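Design request, tokens follow.
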């Protein structure tokens, strides 16, 4: 990450101090890379509450520091990144995880998403792209390096063709409102929360609230399960 990128990205972070700074934790086993990412985030106005160099350390420190966003490498000693993600998101569903990895292998991307990661960015990304990804991840958007979003959506569709566990369709199950169904349909089509908000002319926060309400009503746990539910019912084609 060049000093020029850092300076420009930092200028883009002006105004964050006017709001509550996002709490971010960086996990990577390479000290120079970890320190550079943490420095870039801090210079842009983020509150870097912790860093860690291995999986077990990451779990302990994240539980103590309670970050809003975890910037996580997958290739970690002691405990793999996907295990770290699954354990932390399992105990704190509000935690957003942005994987920052050198690997663009499809299997790694899909495993990370299935473990609870909100987004996946390659380490070839610029500083400005990283900062934007952290902000969007904190807001609940699914952020991916270009080309990987289509891969994940394709996997959602593949999963939808497989037998699914029992879903709450039995009589008496909570019903979605028209707006919740509309939001769910757009999520299934692969739109980000920002795009959905613009399409429906509602706020980003309202979109998030509809998604959270839908997850609760359907007794689902994350966006992966939500999209699978929608595609199984053909909402992505509606």
């Amino acid at each position: 990450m060049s000093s020029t990128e850092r300076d420009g990205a930092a200028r883009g972070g002006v105004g964050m101090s006017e709001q509550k700074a996002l709490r971010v934790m960086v996990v990577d086993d390479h000290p120079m890379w970890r320190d550079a990412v943490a420095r870039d985030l801090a210079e842009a106005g983020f509150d870097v509450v912790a860093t860690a160099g291995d999986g077990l350390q990451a779990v302990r420190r994240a539980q103590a520091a309670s970050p809003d966003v975890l910037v996580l490498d997958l290739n970690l000693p002691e405990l793999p990144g996907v295990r770290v993600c699954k354990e932390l998101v399992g105990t704190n569903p509000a935690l957003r995880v942005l994987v920052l990895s050198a690997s663009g292998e499809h299997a790694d991307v899909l495993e990370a998403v299935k473990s609870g990661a909100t987004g996946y960015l390659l380490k070839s990304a610029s500083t400005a792209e990283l900062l934007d990804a952290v902000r969007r991840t904190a807001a609940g958007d699914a952020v991916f390096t270009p080309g990987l979003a289509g891969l994940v959506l394709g996997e959602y569709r593949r999963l939808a063709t497989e037998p699914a566990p029992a879903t709450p369709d039995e009589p008496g199950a909570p019903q979605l409102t028209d707006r919740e169904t509309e939001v769910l349909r757009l999520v299934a089509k692969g739109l980000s929360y920002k795009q959905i908000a613009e399409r429906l002319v509602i706020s980003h926060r309202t979109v998030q609230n509809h998604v959270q309400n839908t997850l609760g009503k359907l007794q689902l746990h994350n966006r992966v399960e939500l999209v699978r539910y929608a595609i199984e019912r053909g909402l992505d084609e509606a």
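Comment from the thread starter after seeing the answer: thanks! The CA atoms of residues 164 and 229 lie 9 Å apart.
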